[in-house]
Design brief:
elongated; TIM Barrel; six-stranded parallel β-sheet; nicotinate phosphoribosyltransferase
Length: 376
């Protein structure tokens, strides 16, 4: 395992909320700090190795895609306990002055071994191993687990849509229904790692370099007196990027209007890029829309589909012969609707050169540091 970039690694980073503050060291469970205090009191701060892995995969998953490593490395690089954090811990009345003074100078000095983001992993395979003085390795457990778990969860869901699309582009559309601002940013990044080439999230374009894309909403169409007025206005404003949303009223009627607008654009030296369907019987409507477009000589105009999609509906549409050129996938992908969590663990496997393990039923661990090899 090596800490290196994956081939589809977005550039840049974005952090919001507590992890964006100087108090990020307190993004941890209290018992991590109480254990650290006890270790210090007992003179125990030898080198320890913790292994992070998925104990059991959800029945909906046969593999995972690792993600979140960049955020982990940034968190560990900047790790420090601020004066404000120490004052707060002091106010709890649990920790002595020696421990609080120790925290004031604490930095992460350890080593991280990990599979690259975008790597396929399976049950029990370590995604990350942290080797550091045990106090450091213990205190960062919660943050490391949180960052790896959530992003691996989302990337593992997103890749299912990418595979279901059979080479057609998948655009990440779920920002408005993700579980918060930070989750929305991570969802765009995870989908990009999984193979989705674009996102509707403009901020993800700024921070990660993910190409932003988008068309129009039904509100835009209904704001105009007539549907074709909306189509013409958009074509005038964005002649190089015109994709028309044609299901606000009657989809087939709107397809004929799209043909009319496309011919007007051709007269001005431009081409209609595509039309988008967001509701209705997608298979039947896409076939009829394709017939209308092709009948007008617009074989190059693409059909985009969105609206409550997931890998199952995408596979069904294509199996039934729907002439779809690209998919916009949002809510179900960005919240991992069918598998909302992973059974991940961060377990001590070695302390001061001594292999350690957990043997309890259903939660036994493999001892010692590990290396992952894939034989094909």
């Amino acid at each position: 395992m090596k800490d290196r970039a994956a081939s589809r690694k977005p550039r840049g980073t974005f952090v919001s909320g507590p992890l964006a503050t100087r108090d990020a060291a307190l993004f941890t469970d209290l018992y991590e700090i109480t254990m650290a205090a006890s270790y210090l009191r007992e003179g125990m701060n030898g080198l320890a190795t913790f292994s992070l892995f998925a104990r059991k995969l959800p029945k909906e998953r046969s593999f995972l895609i690792a993600a979140g490593l960049e955020d982990v490395l940034n968190y560990l690089r900047d790790f420090r306990v601020s004066r404000a954090a120490i004052r707060y811990l002091s106010s709890l009345g649990r920790f002595d002055t020696d421990f609080l003074d120790f925290l004031g100078g604490l930095r992460f000095t350890g080593e991280v071994r990990a599979v690259p983001e975008g790597t396929v992993v399976f049950q029990d395979e370590p995604l990350v191993e942290v080797t550091a003085p045990i106090i450091e390795a213990q205190i960062v457990e919660t943050a490391v687990l949180n960052l790896i778990h959530f992003q691996t969860l989302l990337t593992s869901k997103a890749v299912r849509s990418v595979l279901a699309a059979r080479g057609r582009p998948v655009v990440e559309f779920g920002l408005r229904r993700t579980h918060g601002i930070d989750a929305g940013m991570k969802a765009a990044r995870c989908a990009f790692i999984a193979g989705a080439p674009m996102s509707s999230n403009v901020l993800a374009g700024l921070y990660y370099g993910i190409p932003p894309t988008g068309t129009m909403a039904h509100s835009y169409v209904s704001a105009f007196p007539h549907e074709i007025d909306a189509f013409r206005a958009f074509a005038r404003a964005f002649p190089a990027y015109t994709v028309l949303l044609i299901d606000t009223y009657d989809t087939v009627t709107a397809a004929h209007k799209a043909v009319e607008v496309a011919k007007e654009m051709e007269a001005r030296g431009h081409r209609l890029a595509g039309v988008r369907l967001d509701s209705g019987d997608i298979v039947a409507l896409s076939k009829e829309v394709r017939r209308v477009l092709d009948g007008a000589g617009l074989e190059d105009v693409k059909i985009f589909v969105s609206g409550g999609l997931d890998e199952d509906s995408m596979e069904r549409f294509l199996a039934e012969g729907a002439p779809i050129d690209a998919f916009g996938v949002g809510t179900r992908m960005d919240v991992s609707a069918d598998a909302p969590y992973l059974d991940m663990a961060y377990k001590l496997v070695e302390y001061q050169g001594r292999h350690v393990l957990k043997t309890s039923a259903g939660k036994a661990t493999w001892t010692g540091r590990k290396q992952v090899y894939r034989f094909l």
